[in-house]
């Protein structure tokens, strides 16, 4: 063994990322009595997407009391829908309250993870050094790496260019001609937040979103006092918010035609603010509501109706100097370009850095589309788990519910490894992964995300929906309550396997 390998730090569990998934995993590990773990974070602070997305107007579209951990209720939420700064503060509070900071390694970006078949552990190279870990829990999240389209001539643009998730707070937008590219959740928050201060705003829209009214308001001091004094009221509020959204799921997953009433509400929301019939026509979607994520805003349409705003109902095709050319030929001269074009969701960059038992990267095994067992484990990648993995996303509720379900699965996974005794690893069987994904995709066929007539970021390049869970959060929690060892091969170190007279990778597969 090389000297540098002997000196390499070893831990039981390495968690990647300090967003909701990573911090939640760290808390759960401590609750399970596991303290031999590290949390690797590429930035210098916790928070994940809520640290990085600091653009003007950034807020959550899930009610505050539902967008927080059940084990860490927050009676002090200032609004029914919280802003980025409040959610980031909450995550900092979780890290401090549960004593997680000693476990966190900041400025430690994971460069590569490689499974060692002989040692039965992961070799992890980071920007701050290398470690080994028996189990890796990847919580990098699908909304962590910004996606900027390949636009001809963009390199020659002489003005300012940045993505919404990498906002340049040093650049003064006042009096500037600004182009907003995209009409997703970020864009509909940014546009009204900066419209009044820019000289001219041009919105490049490929597909108009459905926008519903946002029932946001300050949470009164009396409400916060009640939640502090009687904690069960916080749980009751959370439970009510959860229940309402559970009842909505069937319309998305089984009866999309029932969403027509919701469409009429969205159209009335538009009509109240947009009086110009031509502009209203541009902003009216041609697909079923829910096919793309339903957005919430009371200020987006009023901002678009202002005289200093233009809507180009065509995507950006080319940049010529400081002139932006749309696909329909419209030309617009601007000083700054802001991309609100989303993230690498179905092609997560972390997959390029994970090398499994057969020497292939996770990205290579996912060439035909992401797939995993119960949204958590992948065949050929022993003792590797992901939080918010394939087909765990939601179209109408809180991802924290899904994260907590996956934390249940992670906890039982680690218990099963310990119960097996000695050095052991679990590797998802290909047949189990395939069977799970076949069932998910069969259920997906009836959903609004597949039948609604849109092309969304839920779909990969093959048109396969690899992001959304086609059921209720209750169903997912039941599916991830415990690990079924029949879905896994049990691996043992080579020396132990040889003594048993069987190959290392299958030494206890039939146990």
From TrEMBL:
GO terms for molecular function: flavin adenine dinucleotide binding; N,N-dimethylaniline monooxygenase activity; NADP binding. InterPro entries: FAD-bind_Monooxygenase_sf, FAD/NAD-bd_sf, Flavin_mOase-like. Its cofactor is FAD. Catalyzes a Baeyer-Villiger oxidation reaction, i.e. the insertion of an oxygen atom into a carbon-carbon bond adjacent to a carbonyl, which converts ketones to esters or lactones using NADPH and/or NADH as an electron donor. Thus, can convert bicyclo[3.2.0]hept-2-en-6-one into the oxidative lactone products 2-oxabicyclo[3.3.0]oct-6-en-3-one and 3-oxabicyclo[3.3.0]oct-6-en-2-one. Is also able to catalyze the sulfoxidation of methyl phenyl sulfide (thioanisole). It comes from Streptomyces triticagri. This is Baeyer-Villiger monooxygenase. Pfam families: FMO-like. Belongs to the FAD-binding monooxygenase family.
